[in-house]
Design a protein that fits this description.
There is one protein chain. By secondary structure, this protein is α+β, with helices and mostly antiparallel strands. The chain has a domain of about 120 residues: Jelly Rolls. It has 9 helices and 8 strands. It has a 4-stranded antiparallel β-sheet with strand order 1-8-3-6. The chain has a 4-stranded antiparallel β-sheet with strand order 2-7-4-5. Helix 1 packs across helix 2 and helix 8 packs across helix 9. The longest helix is centred in the C-terminal third of the chain and has 26 residues. The radius of gyration is 18 Å and the shape is globular. One of its GO terms (molecular function) is DNA-binding transcription factor activity. This is Cyclic nucleotide-binding domain-containing protein. Pfam families: cNMP_binding.
């Protein structure tokens, strides 16, 4: 990813120079994962915070019966990682895997701390993206307890149209808290209304 692309994206939240974008990028390393490769395994320690360059990451919790409960998707220029594990050095409660071949920029906790020290405006940047993530999380809780499955699916499509193109239906269904078969019924019903 070029410094210009980083600068353009980050300028939605903070004013940074090209030199600061270059300094930001210098603290990351690029890693690539093949489709379905696990990036963070539940029980392991999450050592990095990830910025998706290309592809998609899926964060999920595996219950005692082996069922994967999808919590989050992250696509181009979205962040992902198990923050409690990364920040508190505790085992991860979640797993994160690549959906499709995926390229990531990853930053370690020491480099993240260094970024905050050397370029304090990035604390503001991360505060804003974490606030936005909290708002989205709270919105999702309300949707899960107060909306029908069809309403949740329509909200998902509106909010994340690119995700539906990248992610298999079974994972979208899990994210919505329904079965893949029920999601197929919803899609057919919506298609028939047109």
């Amino acid at each position: 990813m070029s410094p210009e692309e980083i600068q353009k994206n980050l300028r939605r939240y903070i004013n940074i120079s090209l030199e600061e974008a270059e300094q930001f990028l210098s603290l990351f390393e690029t890693v690539r994962y093949k489709n379905r490769k696990v990036v963070v395994e539940s029980g392991d320690y999450c050592r990095y915070f990830f910025l998706v360059e290309e592809g998609c990451l899926m964060t999920y919790y595996t219950d005692g019966n082996g069922f994967e409960h999808v919590l989050q998707f992250a696509t181009h220029m979205w962040w992902s990682g198990d923050l409690p594990s990364l920040m508190n050095n505790v085992p991860s409660a979640y797993s994160i895997k690549a959906i499709g071949d995926t390229s990531l920029l990853q930053i370690s906790k020491p480099n993240l701390d260094r970024l905050y020290r050397e370029l304090p405006k990035f604390e503001r940047y991360y505060r804003i993206i974490f606030q936005n993530a909290l708002v989205a999380h709270q919105r999702r809780i309300i949707q899960n307890i107060a909306y029908t499955a069809e309403e949740r699916y329509l909200q998902f499509r509106e909010a994340y149209p690119q995700v539906e193109l990248l992610v298999p239906q079974k994972y979208i269904a899990s994210y919505l808290g329904i079965t893949p078969e029920f999601l197929s019924k919803i899609r057919r019903r919506l298609s028939n209304r047109k």
